[in-house]
Each structure stands twice: as structure tokens, then as C-alpha cells.
Design a protein that fits this description.
- Pfam families: Y_phosphatase3 (PF13350).
- It is built from 12 helices and 7 strands.
- The chain is an alpha/beta fold.
- α4 packs across α5.
- The N and C termini lie far apart (about 55 Å).
Length: about 290
């Protein structure tokens, strides 16, 4: 029984059609979002695609629309999808946060006029490791490693450097496989740098459960039909979903080593005060200017 379940998990973590199962115990996942923020960009070949535009920071400024996009894998992106991302959302750069194995098995579709950057948070990933033992604890450990490992810090540092080099007229799209973990941490760091409050960051993070639930329900149904034991299903659910404890593991690890996220951005990622000021100038606007 172990072999088919592991094969299924590998497929889950390396294809665009896979999403998440909403954990019933996670009350935060049902948080109501403002109508103008957190909405999914519907594409034929990619899931969990979202524009961060519209989120309001602690100073009352809004994240500019059509500037920061998060997504799951772009391997199955159609030509029409690519055209929509370029023409409607002004995407100019595609930052791939996946491992070498994931990118090789499911390479991103080429989008005319868009520059591809391979920027792995975890250079080499063994997906079956997540199913050994307690799935929740495994995910929490992974989230700590995302922000504290040398490779993770290098990847997030490079993502910020890319954001700083991007003109106001262009957008950056960054993604992993399901668009929930490595991408979720990247989004949390970006929104923190833009002075967005923790509650808003968490709500955005948990939206992955909503947008990828249908495909994950199919995955669990397949696992159940194959005869997976209850413990295996519990681990699979934990690995496929997002929970507040996962992202909080990243924040706790940052606080323990650096004191707070701002110190992490400075000392962990090497961003200067000028960098953060520039980032806010590029990606924040007054309410009237946010959709220009």
C-alpha cells in the first residue's frame, strides 16, 4: 500500500491540477475576505492564481493591483492564459520557487515576453519524506527550514531583489507547485515588508484551502479508494492543506533567531532600509491610485 500512496503524493506535489483539502479543524480558513482582495484569477491551466492588489497596510496604503501575483505551477498554462497574464496583469517575470526535480518534471510553459527565473527555496526535494510520521509536524519543520536554511534565505533574497528591479508598469508572478507553502511564505514576507498586518497575511495564506479544495477532494477520494489507512489519509490531508500553525512556525523561527520579521529582512535576507522604502514606493499606493 505504501507505494501507490507515495506515488500519489509525488504526483500531488508536482502537477498544476492539485490543490488542498480544507482542514475541518481550522476555523481561520473560513475567514471572510473583502470583495476586492484575495480573489482568484481564473486560468485554464493554472490554479490558486491571485493578485495581491488591494490589501491595506497599517498606514492605510493599498498594495497596487497588477503588480504582485502568486500562483501554483505554470506547467499546464495555455497560450490564452499566458496572454491574459501579460495583457491584463502586466506580468513580465516568472519566478519559479520549486525544486530542481519539480521544475524538470513539470517545466513552466513559456510565455512570450516573460522572463523565467529558477529560484528554488529547496533545491532538492524528496516528497515522500513528508508522509513519514506526523504530517503536521513535518510541515511545521519544513516551514522553519524555508526561512532559516541557507537555500531558503538565498531564494527569498533573490525574489526581493527581483521585486526591487521591476518597473512600476510591470508585474512579477512567483510560484511553487501548489502555490501554498513556499509561495505562502514568500507572500507573508512580502506583505510584511509592505507593512500589512499579520491577520491579513494569515487570511491570504489560508485562502489556498478554498481555491484548491476541489482537486484535493479528488485526491483524497482516490487515496481512499486505493485502500489507504486512516493514518495515511490524515498525513496526506496535513501535507496537502495549509494551517495557521504552518505559517506561524515560520514566524516563530524568525522571531526566535532574529527578534522580528523586520530584523529578518535586514539581517537574514540582507535588505537595507532603503530597499524596504523603495519596495513600499513601488508596490504601495493611496486608495485612488492603487488600480492605475
Amino acid at each position: 500500500m505504501k507505494k501507490p500512496i507515495r506515488t500519489l503524493l509525488t504526483l500531488v506535489l508536482t502537477t498544476t491540477s492539485l490543490g488542498l483539502v480544507q482542514p475541518l479543524a481550522n476555523a481561520h480558513a473560513a475567514a471572510v475576505q473583502p470583495a476586492t482582495t484575495g480573489r482568484q484569477i481564473k486560468l485554464s491551466g493554472a490554479a490558486n492564481v491571485r493578485d495581491l492588489g488591494g490589501y491595506v497596510n497599517r498606514d492605510g496604503k493599498h498594495v497596487r493591483a497588477h503588480k504582485l501575483l502568486r500562483s501554483a505551477s505554470l506547467a499546464k498554462l495555455t497560450a490564452e492564459d499566458g496572454q491574459k497574464l501579460v495583457k491584463t496583469y502586466h506580468v513580465k517575470t516568472d519566478v519559479d520557487l520549486r525544486s530542481a526535480e519539480e521544475a524538470a518534471q513539470q517545466p513552466d510553459a513559456k510565455i512570450k515576453g516573460v522572463t523565467y527565473q529558477f529560484n528554488p527555496v529547496v533545491p532538492h526535494m524528496n516528497t515522500t519524506d513528508f508522509m513519514q510520521g506526523d504530517g503536521v509536524k513535518n510541515m511545521e519543520t519544513a516551514y522553519r527550514n524555508f526561512v532559516l536554511s541557507k537555500d531558503g534565505k538565498k531564494a527569498y533574497r533573490q525574489l526581493f531583489k527581483t521585486l526591487l528591479k521591476t518597473p512600476k508598469s510591470q508585474a512579477v508572478l512567483y510560484h511553487c507547485s501548489a502555490g501554498k507553502d513556499r509561495t505562502g511564505v514568500a507572500t507573508a514576507l512580502i506583505l510584511s515588508a509592505l507593512k500589512v498586518d499579520r491577520a491579513t497575511i494569515m487570511n491570504d495564506y489560508l485562502l489556498s484551502n478554498r481555491y484548491l479544495a476541489p482537486s484535493n477532494q479528488q485526491i483524497l477520494a482516490q487515496a481512499t479508494a486505493s485502500g489507504a489507512h486512516e493514518a495515511t489519509l490524515a498525513s496526506l490531508t496535513a501535507v496537502l492543506g495549509v494551517q495557521s500553525s504552518y505559517l506561524n512556525s515560520s514566524f516563530k523561527a524568525i522571531n526566535a533567531k532574529y527578534g522580528n520579521v523586520t530584523n529578518y529582512l535586514h539581517k537574514g535576507l540582507g535588505l537595507t532600509t532603503h530597499d524596504l522604502t523603495q519596495l513600499q514606493k513601488i508596490y504601495l499606493a493611496t486608495p485612488k491610485a492603487q488600480f492605475r
